[in-house]
Amino acid sequence: MYLLDIKYTPLTATLGALIIGIGTEFTILIMERFYEERRKGRNSREAIMITNRKTGKAILASAFTTIGGFSALLISDFVILSNFGLMTLINISLALFSSIAVMPAILIILDRFVKIRHVGENELPVK
Predict the structure, then answer these.
(1) Residue 57, in any domain of the structure
(2) Does residue 31 form part of some domain?
(3) Domain ranges, residue 63
(4) Are the CB atoms for 50 and 42 separated by under 8 Å?
(5) d(CA 62, CA 45)
(6) Domain count, the chain
(7) Span 9-35, pLDDT tens digits
(8) Which InterPro entries does the protein's record reference (predicted)?
(9) Whole-number Å distance between alpha carbons of 101 and 112
């Protein structure tokens, strides 16, 4: 924000919660698809390739739709709104990058240490 000369306002203060929500959605989608492919018996590299090929499209579409919607704020004459739009675009782009590029690498590394266990219906805590 300092580099772009954007002032901290109550509107930009809410941005953290918004980006955490969006980024969490992206990472949960990737993580769940990865573990689904691992449960099917695929190795971690195959599972991440299938995950990126199938779920990656949905995440990209979701991110670009959100970026497109918030980019409308950039043309606002109200400086607070245009700054909020710019910061949202930057943060969603970073969340997208971390979900598509960083999260798969983390999953492959953690796959060496975490054993996947299939939970049957009888073992679920809620029925």
Answers:
(1) yes
(2) yes
(3) 15-112
(4) yes
(5) 24
(6) 1
(7) 887 788 888 899 998 999 999 999 998
(8) MMPL_dom, Mycobact_MmpL, SSD
(9) 19
